[in-house]
Write a structure and sequence with these properties.
By secondary structure, this protein is an all-alpha fold. 68% of the residues lie in helices and 0% in strands. It has a single domain, classed as Heme Oxygenase, Chain A (Up-down Bundle). It is built from eight helices and no strands. The radius of gyration is 15 Å and the shape is globular.
């Protein structure tokens, strides 16, 4: 199964926000594999806050909470709870919003996360590791064609940008 053959409807619908996340100084630092430790810890904390809510719509083997817990402990840094993540999780109050967020987060962890995991040498990355990556890809494949999730996926990317802004504002260019 080649899940990269076509980008998918949701990828097209969210491309601008996806690229904005990659271009954000926090996103670019993560992608480079060399983020400031405090940025990385706060990012893990924000992801944890999101997954506490979003994992409810994912198959059990795709949940990230335990792995994020392990990464937060292994980071050794004191992470700050994300106000932006909390605000966003309050909007995840129906199946569409949850599934849109699950698409974005699972897609990011499966696809870009695979590249990031290799680059983040010295950083804990168990949240980017999979017991069976094919299970995640099989879940993602039909979801990425769901037009009804476009706005919810865009909302998740917008929330990720807000989280990145918050991290940068809190710590400057660490």
């Amino acid at each position: 199964m080649n899940t990269n053959a076509t980008p998918g409807l949701l990828w097209t619908a969210t491309r601008d926000l996806h690229h904005a996340c990659e271009a954000h100084p926090v996103g670019a630092a993560m992608a480079s594999g060399k983020p400031p430790a405090v940025w990385y810890a706060d990012w893990l904390q924000a992801l944890h806050q999101l997954h506490v809510v979003v994992d409810s719509v994912l198959p059990l083997e795709l949940g990230r909470i335990d792995r994020l817990d392990a990464d937060l402990v292994a980071s050794g840094a004191v992470a700050t709870r994300s106000i932006a993540a909390d605000k966003y999780t309050y909007t995840l109050n129906n199946e569409l919003s949850l599934e849109g967020a699950a698409y974005v987060l699972t897609g990011a962890h499966l696809m870009g996360g695979e590249l990031m995991r290799r680059r983040l040498e010295g950083y804990p990355t168990s949240h980017l590791e999979w017991d069976d990556r094919k299970v995640g890809l099989a879940w993602l494949k039909p979801v990425r064609e769901r037009a009804d999730l476009a706005q919810a996926a865009r909302d998740c990317f917008a929330a990720l940008l807000s989280i990145m802004d918050e991290i940068q504002e809190r710590h400057g260019n660490a």
